[in-house]
Amino acid sequence: MTIKDIQDILPLVEQPSRYIGSEVNRIRKPPEQIRLRFALAFPDLYEIGTSHFGLQILYDILNRRKEIAAERIFAPAPDMEAAIRKAGIPISTLESGTPLNRFDIVGFSLLYELDYTNVLTLLDLGKIPLLAEDRTADHPLIIAGGPCTCNPEPVADFFDAMVAGDGEAAVIELTRTWLEWKDRDGVNKTDLLWTWSTIEGVYIPSFFEPEYDSQGRQRLHPVYSDYTSVRRAVLPDLDTAPFPESPVVPFGKPIHDRLRLEVARGCTRGCRFCQAGMIYRPVRERSPRTLLDQAERAVAATGYEDLSLLSLSTGDYRSISPLMTELMRRCEVEHIAVSLPSLRAGTLTPELISQIKRVRKTGFTIAPEAGSQRLRNVINKNISEADILETVQDAFAAGWQVIKLYFMIGLPTETEADLKAIVHLVERVRRMRGSGAKKTRINVSIGTYIPKPHTPFQWRPQISLEESREKIEWLRDRLDLPGVRFKWQDPRVSFLEGVWSRGDRRLSRLLITAYQKGCRLDGWSDRFRFDLWEDAFRESGVDPGFYTAREREAGEPLPWDVIDTGVARKFLWREWEKALSEESTSDCRDGVCEGCGVCDFERIQPVVFPFGEDIPAETADVVRAEAQNSFKTLQVFYSKTGAARFFGHLEMVSIFLRAIRRAHIPVKFSQGYHPMPKISFTDPIPLGMESRKEAFFLAVPGHVHPESVFEGLKDHLPEGLDVRACRIAPPKSERKPPEETSYRITLRETEFESERLRGFEARPAHILTRTTIKGRTRTIDLKETVLEIRMESDRGLHLRLKMIPGKTVRPSEVLREIFGLNEETVKRAFILKL
Which pTM does this prediction carry? Predict the structure, then answer.
């Protein structure tokens, strides 16, 4: 079997649409206009990476420049990785299929420490040396950004440059100076890195040398006297920042399958456990008018049926109530749901609840973090138990049936009484379920707290693995209650995350060792191999307790000191002292400045928009299609060829529904809790098969003409899906399935054996035995279902099958039964339904 590129592998792997790269709104550029090839690498699976809003932002920013081509690449699933290695080909990007090692810059998004082994997977599969010191001028420059770069040291040896803070301005400067360097020299990498070091937020690891004292603590020594630390990049004005108004619409089912609007960046609540609340300061809001305009354009460009408002604390957005009112006024007529995924108890008012439920009830999560008021005071989580209970009561009263509560164990100063308080709070919430208690559920989620860098708790130790297990077990036993579902993060995952988030450069050898042992996709429970990590710790000589279990002194050097987030070290220590005295710190959004050090009140300062300001005056509502009494059903015919053959049935439904929205085709919706468009597909063809003529039925208002649906849809579908015709559907009584279906089959490399075909034709019967899901066996006589079979060439076959209810045979079964072809050969065959 000859495999030339990843496209040849697609028939052999699960969820092949992950690797197609023909999504709506993806960007491909002519090679002749490109001067800089930039690969945006996300070290996790497609369904995770395509949900990352930051990746969409960078993709949009870079591709706005004509001479830059930004293309995406994601960590492959294990079956794809194995196939790539077996074929000996380099991994390539989605847009053009260009091997990773042919790019000028590869930029990784580092969102989660347990993705680090996936970084090595992509470099290795891309045939790029893992360590920066081993790469030459012929290799791409490897850079990184994302929240993990606030402590870049554990993976610093793998990168040429790392960006700390907001990446929008930094990536523009990085590419601008690269283009100038390429025109000027394009060879001396040190010259480029020196230029990059002058850009705000850019850290060059090779410009710092680590040393270790007698206690094993790392201190970085700068190579150049005028480059001693890196100030985090801060985007002062979010309202004018670039926004991807035509984001890529992923295939499959990404983790966050919705349109996202970033209403604000940064948070001023000052929760002492929260790294994001410290490293993304100050708060910067987008204006309501900007958000409404962005929502209108992005919904039209994507066809999404869900919209999510993003922020570290969305309920704190100053104009959240009038913004939601106006959004829902516009979205309700299109059946677009709006969700607020990040809310604090006390900010979700009955008014907001009533707006959210106008289309359908989206997710509802409350994060008390701690069970007792004492511990919430320690961590500066300024909400009371009354706030929590009132919010839950409002949600239950509004009809929500599932409430998620999130808590942490291992917070500084935690006692047994604090654990008991978690149980007490859950029990109180459980008693509030009311008359519909049998249908309602409380989901309790527990995670082990990790004292992250650049927080007031950065000097504290993390609780041990054993202690974490004991506390989780204790809570699980006491929360084994009717109507309560208890979930927890694996303490071993939290332990490993703690090592990587607080580590130094000595962990690079640990990462390589773990990778070589087979550690991959460590954030996925079915792939996590703690036993391999334990072996890697031993072989690399790394003591994990040095990073997790040790209490740090107030003045000792910390690996992440090289990154200046703007939040002063003395402020963080003062917050730790206030935590011990259970003293609160006010929200500087509304109160006095607490002196954290981020704002200069000239360029950088909090940006908020007064309540209701900049909300446009209402315009007339669009009349709903359902308001009309007359509906009719259309039958839409389409072909599915090329890469589109790798779409599964559910993907197809989603693709067409969003195309219908983008084309502004009005449709009829079902009634009830989750209204859905009235659309139904005929018997879907198997994954991997092409078809010249498939169909679906669509209910539309009486005034909609079939020709307008045909014209509207044909420009809104991905490659390989083409609308062929649209007509008034026949009555249901006349919608009969075809009595027979013909196929054309072409083998890739193997030839058909004519002797096997003659043997089949000579036999009076050929029994195919199937085993059902329930273990029962059924038999089908292929002589009864195969109406015609003839070889058109050594590799070509014409097949005509009889469609018998309950006895329908797929062409793949014919290939295996009659010709004895193995599974791989069958999967790689081209099968066209005529």
Answer: 0.94
